[in-house]
Amino acid sequence: MSRDSIDSHMIRVLHTLLTESSVSRAASLLGQSQPTVSIALRRLREITGDPLLVRSGSRMVPTSHALTLIEPAAQALSSIDAILHPNTSFDPVASTRTFRIGSPDYLDVFFVPAVIDAFHQAAPLAKLEFKHLMMVDGGYENGLETGLLDLVIGNWRTPPEHLHLQPLCQDELVCLMRAAHPIRAGALTRDAYEQAEHLAVTTYNTTAWGTIDTELARNGLTRTVTTTLPYFGMAPYVLVRSDLLFTTTRALASHYARLLPLRIEPIPGGASALTYYQLWHERTHRSAAARWLRQLVANVARTLVSETR
Question: How far is CA 156 from CA 161, 162, 164, 221, 280, in A?
Fold first, then answer.
């Protein structure tokens, strides 16, 4: 037999022999006869090139080389058991793993804090990392495929078909402007909207900007964007010092309208709601830990929706 030829059964025999230091006790634990285990010991000696067990007085003891094999054998058996008997349960209270979620920064002020709070209450020993989609090498799709991300949250009009998705909630588009804007409250007409200068945020692939313009086009509206920013969190502070209009979701607009001298106006003629999704790859579709994370995010979304109604 080749020295590198060993199967899972022989590894189990090896581990039992070395931990018990007895052919008879190993045979009993393995449910085999002593002659069968003795034959296996001879084969293991050929494979390893080491006696493994040697006599010391009336008993057998592992050789120094055999002692170094106990831990690798145990690890191998643990890995084999994980393959043959996959763990279908997940205990968030005891987990110490790190979860990674990709999200755009327009979720930072209302959704992300709620997810973080729920996560650490449910999994106090685990870690949670949020990655801005602009910071994920190769884009969020590559992040999900390679395992850099466990989950991605966003509001794409047409999510990638090859990813699993779950709708989380919906949010309408509104217009945010400074409280003392020349356009009076309730006077944002279609003409006023189209003649005004607009502020927009461009993400790593301009998806958010494209989504908003697509929705406006459905209602026969256009806008003239004269200023662009890389982050949503900068936009409200620019609005305070300008006459620019900013089309965004009501959740984001409501948050900053409570903090800054800003007001919200409806989109002229209305606009259909945007749907927020969570996306994940097939590689984590059946993972108990990943399923738990997705359920937690979905529960947070439902809670936020009920609180705003």
Answer: 12, 14, 14, 20, 14
In the numeric block, which tokens belong to residue 84?
Answer: 């043959």
Q: Please give the structure tokens belonging to residue 137.
A: 């090498």
Average pLDDT in the 196-225 region? 80
Domains of the chain are 8-84 (1.10.10.10), 98-170+275-308 (3.40.190.10), 173-272 (3.40.190.10)
Residue 268: pLDDT above 90?
A: yes
Cβ atoms of 176 and 262 within 8 Å: the answer is yes
Say how far apart CA 99 and CA 94 lie, in whole Å. 14
Tally the residues of the chain. 309
pLDDT averaged over every residue in the chain: 87
Instruction: Report DSSP letters for 185-254, one per residue.
Output: TT---HHHHHHSEEEEE--TTSHHHHHHHHHHHHTT---EEEEEES-GGGHHHHHHTS--EEEEEHHHHH
Predicted pLDDT of residue 2: 47
Paired with 276 in beta bridges are 169
Helix (H) or strand (E) holding 164: strand 164-171
What are 54-83's pLDDT values in tens digits?
988 888 899 999 999 998 998 888 888 778
From the list 204, 184, 42, 206, the residue with the least C-alpha distance to 134 is 204
Q: Which residues pair with 62 in a beta bridge?
A: 53
